[in-house]
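SEQUENCE, STRUCTURE TOKENS:
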Amino acid sequence: MQRILDDADRLMLETQDTIRQVVEQGLTPVVYTSRQEIRLSDANQRQQLGQQISDFLVDIVRQLPYTPSYLVGKGGITSHDILTKGLGVRSARVLGQVTGSVPCVMTRHFPYIIFPGNVGSEQSLREVYEKLK
């Protein structure tokens, strides 16, 4: 997360390059942030930090160098921002649940799985991936 704050432009280029390389190898790219907590005493600064990180992830989605078969977003606010800002969805048709409490909606080009931050175990994302591959 610190790199997003310190040098977002460079990190974006590196991330896009890595995504391209992974896709060219026929693999599934995964982008994630660390769970490292950055402690700030001011509530406004904490909110601004969270928004900056979410905006970075949204920009990755906006600039994907290919159309994925599906996309998974983890975390409530981040998943929502990716859906509305990154994918530009104003309304969506819910296709069903991939697993308990994990809905899948159809975007213009592919399904988007919304994985709430407080749902699942350490293995849940992997289990969903295994179902989808």
